[in-house]
Amino acid sequence: MQYITVSTQIVRPTPDPSQDIRWIPLEETHTVNKQIELNLNLDNWKVIVTHRRAIEHYKFQIASNIPILCVGIKTKLYLESQGYTNISYHKSATEITLEDRYYYLWLRGTNFKVNFAGTRENVVGCKTYSTSSLRNNVNIITNIKPSKLLVYSQEQYELIKESGYVPDKLIIVPSIKIGNDIWPEGITVNPA
User: Which residue, of 51, 110, 163, 175, is most buried by count of CB atoms within 10 Å of its CB?
Assistant: First the structure.
């Protein structure tokens, strides 16, 4: 029997020669047309980026030395590769602490773990991208029957559940709630 691992994440995983991981995304992102452009003063503004796609889809220029609070090592590495120099790394959005003395521009997508703009007046939320499902890729996954399946969102989990395919190991992120009717439990990992 051949053991295959499939990753369904939106961003292509970094190749790892020690692992045979196939990338079959179950979602794709699209730029949102109506975005907020702000004149960010370096002395009293910070930017929150909880997913790499949020800044990739932002249509306006951000100074490379603006303070950025980011979530995830891949997001941090992407920001560094784009020339940003003042980055504070966090493993989870729940680790980000906001201060009253700053204003924040929160670049976000459709789904998020923490609603920064919902509780604070000094946070401006800007949705830069939306997400849609790639239903045809579910068929590709079920045809190759991977033994390990890495799933990164509740929507991806629901697509796999609807397909009826049950891999030997389901690897999920902490935000996914799985039904005990198919898998007694998933293996939870934090990709950040």
Answer: 51
